[in-house]
Predict the structure.
Amino acid sequence: MLWRLLFPSWAFFDRVVAVPALEVRTVDRVGDRTPWRPALRAPSRGVLALLYHPKGTLHLAQQGVVDRFAAECAMDEADETTTALVAALARVAVGDAEGVAWQWRVVESTPSAMAPAQVVFCSDELPVHDTPPDAR
């Protein structure tokens, strides 16, 4: 019995599941597309992160929204609110590039990379609005 207390069963780690990732790309005026790049990057962790890590907490919340969106897409029940939240996360990653369009997608891939990434959702090309003249 003492042996089981010292070495618990890790059976809940027995299978590898697909991990959804949010990716973005831009399209210039000529129509050239940049390669897909990750929209969410995990922040670096220091010693203080064990006690206080707000950037890590924000990243987990953002990834949770992407996870929820992927789950909703798998059930063909993508909610407008979740879709809008994921699109907003992607928009932040694109930045304020002037005069280009952008696109976002959610892909699922296994950590072992044995299977190719599967596209869960891909948006249409969306315009990036030019900066208003008074803000320049």
Notes: DSSP finds three helices and five strands in the chain.
